[in-house]
């Protein structure tokens, strides 16, 4: 009996070992062995477990509050390298870790958009995320003027200015502590709704409903793509349908509005500009393209801007010397006005040289996006390694921004590091780089600058939990969402 039991346990252990080996190497056999001799020049790394790849270690690192331990495990196992291979978000991929390799990936046209299908399904296949390089160039040409021109930004600043003033006035009168990040995101959403649709949506309940749907959509972008009730991705898809219905109705309403009416002539919002613009061949944006672009702009405009304002104010309060220097710059702008009570202008924002460094340093340190997504359109040799056609490529922004070879004492908040010629090419990429550089980057910085202008001149932040921890998914944020009070400065 003892001999039979021993044989049984031996067979069981051998079976477990063989099953483990099979599962542990299945992705390698499926995706690597078929590459032939090319597999010998792949970057170091491993493809993890079948189906899930390296996602368990990814979520474990980011949800434990130690996001850089994910890439650190690759460095510990395979040594420091500019590229690693892994299996993330449902596909084999190459992680680009150095400033040089990230810059190459972001500027080389052999790499196209590589967002997971789940992301394209949520943000739309007719926007900037899900189209070919050629189609992307066409879209960028068409939206450059409505989104990033000086004329457009000079119009949009009035929407931002009024809402920012009213928001701070309301927050200052709120006696109980509130989640500043939550309120800032709601306010940033209201800003973007006004920029896109001017006063078309004014009902507070409707704005809150749309903002809630956008929150669901944003959470779904970084969730496991399981389309079943109860899962974040399922809720995100349903939210997208509701948003599509709302914005499609707005576009149809504008199409039917006679251009000769006073209301039509007076409208100067992003929707009007996108509907009127045409390329050199006279081609205009289709209604479906406009709706998908609206969804993309709103995601970026209220998520990134809301977080950027919150984090910048937190860092300013924690670094009085930086706050004072930024404040003096804003006070000097006001002194130069004929009317000190006049609204902020776009030309004044362009003069905020130091504040722009403060904002960029915040984005470097916070890393609202841990990586970008590209895909190799052909077999590509880079730094002596092969990137196979069809593999996803992830320029890992965190590794670039936190590399001490790129930024001295990278974990310190130090806007002065961005002065002069101290920034090496490709070492600061919060908005990406190359032809896929975020088209709304200037609009986002404008929005953040306006809010910071009024904060620096008139207010201070009093956090309830100044030592609150940080959460990294779906975006980097204080664990308590910056529970705080806004106080008016005594001399303001």
UniProtKB/TrEMBL annotation:
Q: Quote the Gene3D superfamilies the UniProt record gives.
A: Cytochrome P450 (1.10.630.10)
Protein's cellular compartments = Membrane
Amino-acid positions noted as binding heme in the UniProt annotation, renumbered to this chain: 438
Q: Does the keyword Membrane apply?
A: yes
The Gene Ontology CC terms held by the record are: membrane
Q: Which residues cross the membrane?
A: 6-23
| Keyword Metal-binding found | yes
Which GO terms of the molecular function aspect are on file?
metal ion binding; monooxygenase activity
| Cofactors, names only | heme
Task: Using the record for this protein, list the coiled-coil segments as residue ranges, or answer none.
Answer: none
Using the UniProt record, give the first listed, main subcellular location: membrane
**Membrane-topology annotation of the record:** Single-pass membrane protein
Tell me which UniProt keywords the record has, alphabetically: Heme, Iron, Membrane, Metal-binding, Monooxygenase, Oxidoreductase, Transmembrane, Transmembrane helix
As for family, the record states: Belongs to the cytochrome P450 family.
UniProt-recorded name of the protein: Beta-amyrin 11-oxidase-like
Record organism: Cinchona calisaya
Higher taxonomy = Eukaryota, Viridiplantae, Streptophyta, Embryophyta, Tracheophyta
